[in-house]
Amino acid sequence: MNWDDDERIHLINLLNDCVRLTELGNFNDADIALYHLSQLASSDGDSMQRVATYFIEALAYCQVVKNLRGVPKVLHLVKTLSTPEQQLVKKLFFDFYPFIKIAHTITNQAIIEAMKGETSINVLDLSPSYNALQWTNLMKCLLKPNTPTCLKITITAIHEKKEVLEQMGLHLGVEAERLHFLISNSILFLENLDPEKLPIKKGEPLAISSVLQLHSLLATDDDNEMVKMRRGTGQRMFPEMLAKPKKKKVVNPSPDSALSPFSPCPSHKMESFLYGLWKLQPKVMVITEQESNVNNGSSLTKRVRSALKFYSTLFDCLEASTSRTSERRSLMEKMLLGEEIRNIVAGEGVERKERHEKLVTWIPRLELAGFRREPISSNGIRLATKLLQTYVPGYHIHQKNKCLFIYRHNVPLFSVSAWKF
């Protein structure tokens, strides 16, 4: 069934009413709204019905969280995906959408250009995958003419699951041998994100790649962080930064940031991590993040409104390119997009990892840590544009303030930005 605009608007209005009632604690009326929503939503319907399914599931979970603290903990344990399942649905996202491919393409091009003339390079990968496709593609690019034949690449990958890193190492080794590439690759099993402990020496040519990873470091104990920020307003966290005579920067904290206006970097973990990356003195760092604003404080209504715009567009993308009966599509929607929606809507504190923020919020954080923006190269834009042409119409790229935004029609979905020491 294809819905007309009036039916979609009715569903969205009913969803907004349910969110408002939930936020007010009027659970009886919110439950009635959920019942009516359940009659309209469908996990195998059109894109609006499908995305609504996961939002009402998240709202139902949210109501349970607010009323019964023990039950959601148990449900979370039951629904946790295994590592192979997590990697499978990430692979499906990679296949269905152009976003990760574009991120890898632009990142690799930026690395090639930044490392020109180097015979040995280091890559710090903050978002590795099983198949290491990004780095095998980089090898292929480096095999082109005028590339040093004794190039050594050391890849340091960080992931919480050891098996992901082991599998990535196997793929890299096999592909390097197949390509007859003179390469030394090192995959390190690091279970933390402390740059101080990384085996990278200051001054070595380093590139950093982060794809949809940094926002998870914004997860924090909101109440405790607010108290710390109020007590420490006006003081930076790092004595080294206070001791260095640096040019003052005017930072306008974004109202989108969870703990604004106290700091453009609401998470102590994020602030220290970015500064740690800066101290590694990378020649280039490329960051890809969701161009969405679901980390706007404690307002459930604003959070759901922003998330609905972002995810309904992602579901529309699949509606234009993939059959509704596709089992792979349904699996990815349920196990990846649906789980992200539930985390955004029902998660709080450290449990809410999906804290997407727009690039306008990331820029002052990165600049405060010491990074400078680098423009995305014309070659990178050309390659990304060519890649988008292989997908259904509606995707396009927009460049603004040296950064790149990937759109679906008039909705920006992801940003790609390059930075240097």
From TrEMBL:
Motif extent (LXXLL motif): 214-218
GO BP term, example: regulation of DNA-templated transcription
A Pfam family assignment: GRAS
GO molecular function, one term: sequence-specific DNA binding
Cell location: Nucleus
Record keywords: Nucleus, Transcription, Transcription regulation
PANTHER family for the chain: OSJNBA0084A10.13 PROTEIN-RELATED
One cellular-component annotation, GO: nucleus
Species annotation: Glycine max (Soybean)
Protein name per its UniProtKB record: Uncharacterized protein
Location of region: SAW: 346-420
UniProt keyword annotation of ATP-binding present: no
Keyword Nucleus recorded: yes
InterPro entries assigned: TF_GRAS
Family membership: Belongs to the GRAS family.
Top-rank taxon: Eukaryota
